[in-house]
Amino acid sequence: MNYNKSFKKLVVLLLALTSMNVLFAQPIERFIKVVVAADHSDWTYKKGEKVKFTISVYKNGNLLNDVKVRYEIGLEKQDPIKKDSLILSIGTQTIDAGTINEPGFLRCIVVAVIENKEYRNLSTAAFDPLQIVPTVENPKDFNEFWQNAILENAKIPMDAKMTLMPDKCTEKVNVYHLSLQNYRIGTRLYGILCVPKKEGKYPALLQVPGAGVRAYSGDIANAEKGIITLQIGIHGIPVNMDPSVYLDLASGVLNGYPTYNLDNRDRFFYKRVYVGCIRANDFLTSLPQFDGINLAVTGGSQGGALSIVTAALDSRVKCLGVYYPALCDVTGYLKSRAGGWPHYFDKYNKQFNDTKEKLQTVPYYDVVNFAKRIKVPGFYSWGYNDEVCPPTSMYSAYNSIVATKELFLALETGHWSYPEQNEKMNNWLLAKLKSN
Asked: Can you tell me the distance from the alpha carbon of 351 to that of 345, in angstroms, rounded to the nearest whole number?
């Protein structure tokens, strides 16, 4: 047996699995635990109200004495306004962090150094978050632009191809690798379709992906509950290949895909993605097993953005479930506050993207402008400690929604979710889908 070859395959597989779960998986527990907490139980304050953060370091469930920590305090994704260090003589200490006088978030990041290892955590205080307003412009021809894009895409034959995957099918569900034509003749959209075997009519759930390049396995669990499910990829490549293929693509031709053609609103990468989500719904609603009424969309991060976009553009969608949406108010950095992933205008990327052409493109794709057009109920969930999709950016979109909405906060979460969040989201979606 070639052990080097086998080990290499194992490493590739583990890396692929990690990339698939990174947006949703809870961080691994560490031997030393740094806990940072704001002094209001809901971590929420009024503008001008002072916040205190308590820093504690634990080992084996007990406070660890005489620990050196360094900390910084500032607006999320901005340079800190205060940096200092201290010794936690009894393992815990409370520090004054001041306040901010406008709606937003103040973050305290702490690093403890123990036996030459660093242990990091943070806490983020919200100040009147429901008063946060977006910075991105709303183009006058926004509706016309997207109506035309959808009409043009509708002219392209769907040419659906379903390939049964016998090894994935269960007693109750058939699983297919799906391919649809999308955006232009010859280009494809791929996904994993799960359809209940029992004869009948069923609601449908479109699941849109977080950022990255990966394979998909399909949502068999919900299909066994009587839901047609479709997980799609966005890169126009099959979603059932060897993990090594996706790793090669992610580090090669698809590296940096969120910026492709950002200087042209008609050629920007996400145009094919947004209309592709509508194309996926074209297929779902064409299935003879679809009940003709109940269609939902859900996803997290990039998938959270795509869920809002899809629900705004497609009146067939009856509800949506969103985790920590990306692509929200990306121009926030140009107003000295955090913008959404992929951070086009932060201090690292501003030099490349702060151009007239790119600033003209961005408003047509920013999730805020789709959020304003949502007309159906939505369930939303995130945490204050998200460093990938800053809460300021997410509230910019959430506060723009006038439709029925519900926000479930898991304050200490970053760009991940607890099982309890996933359960609440799934139960909400299933209840909505089966309500008619």
From this structure: 8
| Residue for token pair 């090894």 | 167
Rounded-to-integer distance, Cα 110 and Cα 229, Å: 42
The token pair that represents 58 in the structure block: 């634990």
Band of the pLDDT at 198, cuts 50, 70, 90?
A: very high
Contacts of 55 (CB under 8 A, 6+ apart): 34, 35, 36, 69, 71, 88, 92, 93, 94, 95, 108, 110
Token code pair at residue 70: 């360094």
Our answer to whether residue 235 is catalytic in this structure is no
Active-site residue (options: 386, 396, 400, 417): 386
Residue 1 reports pLDDT greater than 50: no
Taking alpha carbons only, the member of 108, 50, 156 closest to residue 384 is 108
Q: Indicate the pairing of strand 405-409 with strand 378-382.
A: parallel
- Is 329 a catalytic site residue? no
Residue 53 near residue 36 (C-beta atoms within 8 A):
yes
Annotated catalytic residue within 179, 381, 415, 417: 415
Q: Say which residues have a Cβ less than 8 Å from residue 315's Cβ, sequence separation at least 6.
A: 375
CATH superfamily assigned to domain 142-433: Alpha/Beta hydrolase fold, catalytic domain (3.40.50.1820)
Question: Is it the case that residue 141 has pLDDT exceeding 50?
Answer: yes
CB 424, CB 361: distance < 8 Å: no
Q: Where are the alpha helices (DSSP H) in 301-349?
A: 302-313
Tell me if residue 415 is catalytic.
Answer: yes
The CATH number of 32-127, from 3.40.570.10, 3.40.50.920, 2.60.40.1930, 2.40.330.10, is 2.60.40.1930
Token pair of 111 as six digits: 């690093």
Inform me whether the pLDDT recorded for 77 exceeds 50: yes
Q: Which residues face 53 on adjacent strands? A: 38, 95
**Catalytic residue chosen out of the listed positions 301, 307, 393, 400:** 301
Query: At 365, is the secondary structure helix, strand, or coil?
Result: coil
Q: How far is CA 171 from the centre of its chain?
A: 32
CA–CA distance, 79 with 395 (Å, rounded to integer): 21
